[in-house]
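Fig. S4 source data, part A: sequence.
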Amino acid sequence: MEYKNIIFNVEEGIATITFNRPKVLNAMNFEVMTEILDAATICEKDEKIKALILTGAGEKAFVAGGDIAQMQDSTSVEILTLMELGHRTLRLIETMPKPSIAAVNGFALGGGTEIALACDIRFASEKAVFGQPEILIGIVPGWGGTQRLPRLVGMGIAKEMILGGGQINARRAYEIGLVNKVFAPENLLEESRKFALKLAKLPPFALKMAKNAMNYGFDLPLDNANKLEISCIAQCFGTQDQKEGMKAFLEKRKPNFIGK
């Protein structure tokens, strides 16, 4: 697929998807989300790609929400198609075996916050702004905001953000657990890439099992979730990387993981 709305590149095993519509603050529409799905699918399938970073072009926005000018006259059927596409894309990013990092460089409103929520790790610039302002234009979040946000920050804070439609800065986002770390704007991508490279050196099957245990165990009853965890660790013992990791630990040296 030829990308017109994103920039997709891979370097040292790290894929980066850059939302590239800075004139409209990287607003999302059907075409952009289709391109993101295609790039994310490549990330999932390509064994040479070890981690994924998502960020926005320009200095102002990560993703400032949906493309309202395009959406305002849409029919219910058209919006249903767009929402289903968004959910399919974000769920792929959330559940793919490779870890994902949202490098939030500016406004992350509506769909921008929802894209960040689907990533495993969220790093933010000091200039980042988060919010779910959909209520202010007569709608509700449609790409998982009503579900992922309460699971991450708690129901009370999520309701404050979604029902009130307000915005919070990066420091407040860190305080409530919405983001993992906050960096100076000039350091955001460097720090995101540094962490991605660290993850890329870890055994991929163990990363996959760790994500599976958390993603699919979170909503299970505790006993069932613990059984899932037991299954995940047991499967790790069928890999060469587990043997190498434990051998290296006992020999007091760095492991040489091979991804098998």
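Fig. S4 source data, part B ends here. The longest helix spans residues 76-95.
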